[in-house]
Write a structure and sequence with these properties.
Elements: H1 3-29, H2 36-45, H3 58-80, H4 85-108, H5 155-169, H6 192-210, E1 226-230, E2 233-237, E3 245-247, E4 255-259, E5 262-272, E6 274-278, E7 281-290, E8 293-297, E9 300-306, E10 312-316, E11 319-324, E12 333-337, E13 340-348, E14 352-357, E15 362-366, E16 371-375
Parallel strand pairs: 2-4, 3-5, 4-6, 5-7, 6-8, 7-9, 8-10, 9-11, 10-12, 11-13
Antiparallel strand pairs: 1-2, 13-14, 15-16
Length: 380
Amino acid sequence: MKWTEMTEMAYLLRPLSDQIQEVQNFREKKRGSSLFNHLSAVSESIPALGWVAVCQKPGPYVKEMNDAAIFYTNRVLKDYKDTDPSHVEWVNSYLSIWTELQTYIKEHHTTGLIWSKTGPVAPLSLFGAPSDVTCPPPPPPPGPPPVFLDNNPKSDDTAAQHSALFAQLNQGEAITKGLKHVSDKQKTHKNPNLRSQWGRTHQASPAKSQNPSSSACAPAKKHSPVLELEGKKWRVEHQEQSHDLVIEETELRQVVYVFSCSNSTLQIKGKVNSIIMDNCKKLGLVFDSVVGIVEIINSRDIQLQVMGKVPTISINKTEGCHVYLSKDSLDCEIVSAKSSEMNVLVPEGEDDYREFPIPEQFKTVWDGSSLVTEPTKIAG
């Protein structure tokens, strides 16, 4: 696709891209909502609407977005399948949008959207584009990440360059025939004039490097730490180097949302509905009991200790997580995805624990009727 064509596409898709960004921003503003999994399913899959800009095989792209939605709709089904069938109907209805879109793409646009050569030209002026597209127009304003563009638009050029490189290497000794002879006058170490020119050219460069760049990134904004009850939700946010955080006055209907905390320890007393830990690093969490789920997302180096009971612990996109179970919580279900370095510690005796790693590598085989997946046993 030529530069002018890509620019035209960017202008035409700008309203769609802005709406997708609005959907994703809305989801970020509703963290801690009882419908957060619903919103996440929509937010993670809505970029599939940009399939029209995927240059090759947009069908798999839509399927990838659909799989991202399924990760969250499975949680919706788990929470509501036995209590409210309307949520199950919503899941089926929403996922059918993407499956039907995949079917349409497979039938009509398998290798990418085909534009009509005889159809009308899209009026770029409606979207603020300049009327003369022969001159380079100004770039569009900053928007969401370019999720619609092909990640490898120059794969053909790269392959051609590799072929040319191997062809040159295969010449053997003949490859030196194309080299030019360099006289002593052209060699810096044998020509004083060249050395003096080189010195004058590079004397100014250190001074330039010492000046701060005008485009240097501004320091990250520091947020004020938060520990407060907002309606039915406890907010614990942006805590750093705080090892005495305690939530004491809890109720069964309350949710605890822990966001962007690091190098801290939080204790939750009593029984709460659920706990969500998002974007945290080196955080220790000790809690009594949870009636719903404890969810760890986008975090690193987490230590979690259950003093009472918890039915489910979910670990998603997390590196390093140690879960200490109590004797009353040994029947807990631990669900993990896209995570590593996870360990479960089971009580053994009075004050001792036995550590068990959660598998990260799996083997899948076809047994004649279905796929069977089981953890692999790594020798050594």
